[in-house]
Every structure is written in structure tokens, then in C-alpha cells.
Amino acid sequence: MSLIPCFFSTRRSNVFDPLSLDIWDPFERCPFLNTVAHLPSSARETTAIADARVDWKETPEAHVFKVDVPGLKKEEVKVEVEDGRVLQISGERSRELQEDKNEKWHRVERSKGRFLRRFRLPENAKLGEVKAAMEDGVLTVTVPKEEVKKPAVKAIDISA
After folding, report:
1. Residue 36: CB partners within 8 Å, gap ≥ 6?
2. What is the pTM of this model?
3. How far apart are CA 89 and CA 50, in angstroms?
4. Cβ neighbourhood burial of 76 (10 Å; 0-12, 13-18, 19+)
5. Is 137 left (phi over 0), alpha (psi -120 to 50) or beta?
């Protein structure tokens, strides 16, 4: 068994980005270090939704976050701004499995569980005007930016 795959994750987190609070764990996907890997498959909880993918772009007017949350309703997702200019996006999907004596499950691959993503917002963010909308399984959070005021330049006459 090679150890090399354990040091690379599929997450797109940048440990050098001061605005991202995601922490890269080099041992995150190592099967011999993960105690859950030794459990039978029926006892494992699928956590694919825990890696909710987020795109963050900055436009001249706002910071726009797009989060993939397929199958979730807006009531199952929470968007908050905490002290310290931290945007927190969280939610939970519960399993829909309900056993019926006439039914037999052949495969269960859809994920369940919680997700939590946190982002430190820049100083120019208008925290009181954050808006969120959900459409087709994509949550869009818009954080307007304050206008950057250019310093007034006053010409000074030079006397002789």
C-alpha cells in the first residue's frame, strides 16, 4: 500500500489563503488512520455532503458565494454572519430510509450528514446587507461591498 495518496486530498482548500478557514489534513483520507474505515459498511455514515463545494468570486459590487447543496430545502440550510466578520454556511441532510416489509434496499449512496463552511470576510464587506437565495440546489450568498472612497486630492499652490 502506498502512502502517497494519503498526502493529497481532493478538497480545493488553500492553506495559504488567509481568508479561508478550511484546514487541510494530510491524513484525512488515510484508511489505516481512520477508525471509521474499520467498521462494516452498514455502520459507516456517508459524509459526502460534508464537503459542500463553494465558489467565491469578487465583483466590483459584492462578494458572491455559490454553494452546491443538491436535494436540500432552504429550511435545511443556515447562513450566518458571526463576530469577527465570519460568514458561516451550514446545513444537514437526514437519511430518508424507511423500511417497509415489502421493500428491499439494493444500494444507498446518497449522502447524509452535516456540513459547515466558514469564510473570513474582508474589511469592505457590508455585513448588514447580506442576501441569500436558493435555486436548483445551488445556494447563492451575496455580500455587498462598501464603496472604496478615494482620498480627496487638493492641489497646493507653491509660493515663491
Report:
1. 44, 45
2. 0.61
3. 12
4. middle
5. left
Hey, what's the cell of 110?
A: 446518497
- 81's CB contacts (< 8 A; 6+ apart) are 87, 88, 121, 127, 130
Is residue 141 a contact partner of residue 131, using CB atoms and an 8 Å limit?
A: yes
Look at residues 66, 64, 71 and name the one whose alpha carbon lies nearest to residue 49: 71
Q: How many residues does the chain have?
A: 160
**∠ Cα 152 157 159 (to 5°):** 155
Nearest to 33 by CA among 3, 11, 60: 3
- Residue in this structure with the C-alpha cell 447580506, named with its chain if needed: 130
Q: How confident is the model at residue 87 (pLDDT cuts 50, 70, 90)?
A: very high
Q: Extract the C-alpha cell encoding 67.
A: 454553494
pLDDT tens figures, 60-80: 999 999 999 988 899 999 999
Q: For residue 103, which amino acid is it?
A: E
Separation between Cα atoms, residue 10 and residue 2, nearest integer Å: 17
Contacts of 40 (CB under 8 A, 6+ apart): none
- SS3 category, 85: coil
